[in-house]
Structure formats: structure tokens, C-alpha cells
Amino acid sequence: SGDASSGEGERTGAGAGAEDEDAAERRAASVVALLQVATRDRVFLVDLPALLRACPDAIAPTLGAVLADRSVLKTGFGVAEDLRRLARLHPPAFGAERLGGPRGGVGPVIDLQHVWAAGTRIAREEAAAGGRAKRGRRARAAAAAAAAE
Fold first, then answer.
1. 49, 66, 70, 89: most buried by Cβ count inside 10 Å?
2. The pLDDT of residue 63 is above 60
């Protein structure tokens, strides 16, 4: 795990202060600050912290409604984690239905990080299988050549 205290001994007051600052930075970094929403012909960048400060009540019926719309496919690299962060940030718009979020939740979602990982795994497996097949053919050809001598 990424726990800063793992494997370390007792902390001093100065160390604890530094740890608190690091923890605050990690929390700030884990917030979705900028959301990109694209249609076929337009791209929108949404400053979520500013939007939450300016008009928090408008998020659920607008952006939340789009993300919950089952006819709108949501894609992105790492989007599943972003949606979890959004759900913690503003449950009425992005959270699970049981937690007061949109009816049916947010979806459908294709996380391209998972697609990429699956494709990479398949490519590695195919490369490994191909390499074994080539080595097998070479070994059989060498054995046949040795038997012919």
C-alpha cells in the first residue's frame, strides 16, 4: 500500500507535520478537478471545484443527468476511478442510487485503461505462445537435421 508510515519507526513532531502535509497533498490530488465532456463535435472542460462552489444544486440535474443517461456511453482512460472520486465529491449527482445518487447510477462506462490492459495481456500471451512455437519448430528442424546426418 502507499501508506507513508509503513516500515518506519516512531514519528517525531516534525515528521508528523510533514506527513500531514503529504496527506493533504494526496487528498487534493485525488479530487477530480477538471472533467472533460465531449460530443461528436464539441469538447467541454468543466472546472468541478468552481462549479461546486458556484452552483452545487445545478450539478445533479445537468452533469449528473448526462452521466446517468443509459443512452450516453461514458469512456475514458481511468474513468472508473474518476467516477468513484466524483461519487465521493458529490453523491447526489454521481453516487450510487442507494446513496442518494441518480436512479440507476452512472453508466454505461467503458474504462479504456481496462481495455488497454486486456489488450496488452493478450498481446503478451500471443507473443509468448508464438515464441514457444518458433522454438519448437526450430528444435524439431534441428532434430530432423541431426537424424538425417
1. 89
2. yes
